[in-house]
Design brief:
Length: 185
């Protein structure tokens, strides 16, 4: 069988806007390598650098070492947010993280994708929203065009490709509803 895929026809300018000049991208990559990956700088310095590059950041951000944020100008983070070591935020589209959210170690918030139904595989990116009080466990994959509901927990190692309800616990691949997080008496 001969493949129908024609990656030579891929056009990185279709369906994707970096939202910054090449100079800004280069400056961000240099800042990211120094302040986020090379040395353990204080959270306050990392917060200021993200804001300098266009991120909207609330107070109380805890951001551990080796966090990889692709485009800070397409990122909004609320108050009292924890981002664990080696979290990867691939925000080809806007990513919004609410208040009191925990994103655990090695979670991957992936706003980028390709349309596999088209031989040239153009971009099929989408935004991601983590509502207030949500917790994304270690090694969780969250795909594009996904919203995680308020107070929802996604257990370690899960794969999320569809939006999740609020006040729930989910786990697995594919991610499945387990039960309510907070129950009322």
């Amino acid at each position: 069988m001969i493949s129908k895929v024609q990656l030579k026809n891929f056009d990185s300018n279709i369906g994707f806007n970096r939202g910054a000049t090449k100079l800004k991208l280069i400056m961000w990559y240099m800042a990211k390598m120094l302040f986020f990956n090379a040395f353990p700088f204080p959270n306050s310095i990392k917060r200021r650098i993200l804001i300098l590059f266009g991120a909207r950041i609330g107070k109380g951000l805890v951001i551990k070492p080796k966090v990889n944020i692709h485009m800070p100008w397409k990122l909004e983070i609320g108050n009292d947010v924890w981002i664990g070591e080696e979290v990867f935020i691939l925000n080809f589209e806007y990513i919004t993280i609410g208040n009191n959210v925990c994103v655990s170690q090695r979670a991957f918030l992936c706003g980028g994708n390709h349309d596999f139904r088209n031989p040239s595989m153009p971009y099929r990116n989408g935004p991601i929203t983590l509502e207030d009080g949500s917790w994304i466990g270690a090694n969780v994959f969250v795909g594009p065009s996904v919203s995680i509901g308020t107070d929802t927990v996604v257990s370690a190692g899960s794969v999320v490709t569809k939006s999740l309800l609020e006040n729930a616990i989910y786990k697995g691949n594919p991610c499945q509803y387990v039960k309510e997080r907070w129950t009322t008496i």
